[in-house]
């Protein structure tokens, strides 16, 4: 990552930014009402929305992160890939019902049959914003670190007058400005096109890398795995589960059991979280009808599946071609493995220039990935704040749509500013755990409310609210008391592996991911809240929701073909 | 949706009628059976795989062919099963759910158009009556 390659990387960043800015301005011209701003006019086709769903979902954490975990810890990184994909089956089952029942947000579905609308809307908005901001924070801190790595600025060095520390802060601010601009200007239309471009770039980059790396091993996967296992110095162990997650500690059966439960907890959160992620849910409404929504999820499953399968080639390929020592020297977490692999493969194919070009391309892809994902998150939270909280709680459902959209733009600015400030504050902390935590929160708070709203006749407002707050607070408290926040010490060096420095230790909950406890707790709260409250469920509205969600009768269509448009 | 739902495109009575419809019950039963089958099979298979990864390391370490061991083979099979289940769901939905839901939706829309037509005629009649009376 030295020499003139960084200028090429920088140049490609600028090209991506200019193209997406152009699209955003185009989208601004074509955004007229709330349907356009929140749902892209409901005019996207199945394949388009499928690409955008995949674009929203495949974050830099999965592209660079999983490749890095596989490169350094072997097989265990692949478990993320599997969980991230399998989760989409749950989404496939829910997408049509939610598309038919809702209008712009998850809260539309949850409040459909709830008697106490403001309570339910408030809870849903709080949950949406919390999950989004946590996820956002992980992405933005990652972006700061990534860009300084991409531009090859090491501590003590400068690039265009910037030190590594200053570059990090500047990157976070630039990413923040960009995402706010995409959202406030482009709304769902602009953001969707940014996602589509990003998904195409990411798939292209990954396919190129995969073909090049497999080509080096004569397209023999077994040979590549063998070479990776040998290069790792751990032989066959490298290709088996257990180096990173669920580690077996000899002579300590309790610790071993805790490690294994922690691994299962992560697996549960990954598979149940996706269907409740706000930026995924808000994408259900950008298509004309439920069948198109189903098609788009099928496209997403295909794309996401192929992508995560290729993480095997990226990760194991990086170990075999680059070597773990070189990867760990760049970044101890391995986030640069895919980039170093690109450089090595490019060099192998086209000399030093080839190396620089491929590295610059993959670097720009990673940057595009981050920008696209954060915009999706900002859009989801500002939509929920404006439509759910401002529109239906503060204004009791009576604001003009243009007012709501103006508030959404302002909310995007607020959420963006909050995320930038938080990200700058925690920029030097290890916040990678926040991604898995966001999945756990989405599964604990949102999933119970969604599933029970759609399928349980007795479910009521008190149940929705209890489920959301129970799942949200449960997972936050468990996280605060877990080893990711305090008390995890490196046994060799004695340095802290937690958020807080060594010496502070108030951890009571042994697992790093709260999912295993917080998801059942969320469901339990939702059921208990329903049964303990004296509120009677609205049977007529439940029938209406069932009919509407299954048949699409009365669902929100694209503006030009919506039958009987409301006054 | 607060404020607006009570005046959705199709009046409440229409939904209640549809909810009683025998075909709607069939649709709901089919969807629920399908959903339960798919959730049970993919979650069961996924957690079996997770449990094997956590507790049956020796089994997962067994070579399948070349350097590809059981863990990798089963992991890739998770991908295959996801694709197959998505495809099965879509095929079943196209054959067994979509025709039913389209039928119910179209009938409701037709009734809606009829009702609007009747309302229009009534309004016109009232207008003429008022005019002749005045």
TrEMBL record, chain A:
> What are the TM regions of this chain, as residue ranges?
6-29, 50-72, 78-98, 119-138, 158-184, 196-215, 263-285, 297-322, 357-385, 406-426, 432-455, 462-481, 515-532
Provide the primary localization.
membrane
The UniProt regions of compositional bias labelled Basic residues, in chain numbering, are 557-567
Superkingdom in the source lineage: Bacteria
Q: Name one GO cellular component term.
A: plasma membrane
Name the keywords, alphabetized: Cell membrane, Membrane, Symport, Transmembrane, Transmembrane helix, Transport
- Which N-terminal stretch is annotated as signal sequence? none
Family that this chain belongs to: Belongs to the sodium:solute symporter (SSF) (TC 2.A.21) family.
Q: What is this protein called?
A: Cation acetate symporter
Query: What GO biological process terms are annotated to this protein in UniProt?
Result: plasma membrane acetate transport
Instruction: Report the membrane topology from the UniProt record.
Output: Multi-pass membrane protein
- List the InterPro entries hit by this protein, alphabetically: Na/Glc_symporter_sf, Na/solute_symporter, Sodium:Solute_Symporter
GO MF terms, alphabetically ordered = acetate transmembrane transporter activity; symporter activity
* Chain intervals for the UniProt region annotation (Disordered): 547-567
Q: Which CDD domains match?
A: SLC5sbd_u4
The subcellular localization recorded is:
Cell membrane
UniProtKB/TrEMBL annotation, chain B:
Query: Pfam families of this UniProt entry?
Result: DUF485
| Protein keywords | Membrane, Transmembrane, Transmembrane helix
Annotated transmembrane regions: 34-56, 68-87
Q: What is this protein called?
A: Clumping factor B
